[in-house]
Design a protein that fits this description.
Blueprint (H helix, E strand, L loop, with lengths): L16 E8 L9 E10 L2 E8 L8 H7 L3 H4 L5 H11 L4 E4 L2 H16 L7 E3 H8 L7 H7 L10 H21 L5 H6 L12
Parallel strand pairs: 1-4, 4-5
Antiparallel strand pairs: 1-2, 2-3
Length: 203
């Protein structure tokens, strides 16, 4: 743990985060595509928002449209993931990847990094689902349940930016809880094995 990058040694609420949610056409990246990307980049106390619908280059199953409201017509003229990846690559630099169920979102992005950028996705990551399971003791750790636990509004779930905003708010509530447990900075997150240094375990 001595090789922790300097940018991760800051107090918890000063750490650089990129909080992300994807909507997809299915559950396995080899068989499915990304239909929406939303992220909030937080660095030096400033937030930068990026969101776009994505053309998955394959039909969106009806059950996915029923869940997300995203139709083939909505994504027909949108960029493909290969066109979006350079933007994500820039926003990911020297940040911590945050999602509610990191292995899911990571699996898609790592697949496309390897396919289009010819390298794996490698960066520190922090999973709010894993934090909820470890510290909250809830019957359900789904995003809506954790948001409800903290009194966080989640309207129109399964649209990427709505989910991302909820994850951001959950993250900062969880960071407050961790501070009360004596976990004060990014190095402490590493020492308590709450950050995956390079990549998360597979799902």
């Amino acid at each position: 743990m001595n090789n922790i990058p300097d940018y991760l040694k800051k107090p918890l609420k000063e750490l650089p985060f990129v909080i992300l949610d994807l909507e997809t056409t299915g559950f396995k990246p080899q068989q499915a595509g990304i239909t929406e990307v939303a992220l909030i980049s937080i660095q030096n106390g400033k937030e930068e928002i990026f969101e776009t619908l994505v053309n998955p280059e394959l039909p969106i199953p009806r059950e996915i449209t029923n869940l997300t409201g995203i139709t083939d017509e909505m994504v027909a003229d949108k960029p493909t993931i290969s066109q979006v990846l350079p933007i994500l690559e820039t926003l990911f630099q020297e940040t911590i990847f945050v999602a509610h169920n990191v292995p899911f979102d990571w699996s898609f992005l790592d697949f496309y990094f390897r396919l289009h950028l010819k390298r794996p996705l490698r960066m520190p990551s922090l999973c709010t689902l894993r934090l909820a399971r470890k510290f909250l003791g809830l019957k359900s750790n789904k995003l809506a349940s954790v948001a409800d636990h903290f009194g966080i509004s989640l309207v129109n779930a399964h649209r990427a930016m709505n989910d991302t905003v909820a994850v951001r708010d959950i993250l900062y509530m969880m960071l407050e809880n961790l501070e009360q447990k004596g976990i004060k900075n990014g190095a402490d997150l590493y020492h308590h094995h709450l950050i995956f240094p390079d990549c998360p375990p597979t799902r």
